[in-house]
Write a structure and sequence with these properties.
Length: about 110
């Protein structure tokens, strides 16, 4: 599919200089669209930003991807809260995995 138009929805800069992730809507001449998540690097003033790799997502993949990213983003907070709870109750802070709360369960 030849991409006719691109629209950058968001750009997330990494903590490392010269690295970023771009979320781009790509549309062809027939009007078919998809999302690309692009890992990009800065190649200097002469080259600019260039794509190292990309992942193409169809429309039906967006909701599950958003849900997965939300769960992954919540994980550090869950671990920190569990460690805090264990310190308050006097339990060993290095053993916390058994007290993590289940936010979502899926059957096989």
């Amino acid at each position: 599919m030849q991409i006719a138009r691109e629209y950058t929805v968001n750009t997330v800069y990494a903590s490392t200089d010269g690295e970023r992730t771009a979320v781009v809507v790509c549309t062809n001449d027939d009007g078919d669209s998809h999302i690309e998540v692009r890992q990009q690097s800065w190649g200097g003033d002469r080259v600019g930003w260039f794509t190292q790799s990309s992942i193409r997502l169809a429309a039906d993949q967006l909701a599950p991807m958003r849900q997965a990213l939300g769960q992954a983003g919540a994980m550090p907070q869950m671990v920190a809260e569990t460690k805090k709870e264990r310190r308050i109750t006097g339990e060993r802070p290095d053993v916390f995995a058994s007290h993590l709360k289940v936010w979502q369960a899926e059957s096989a």
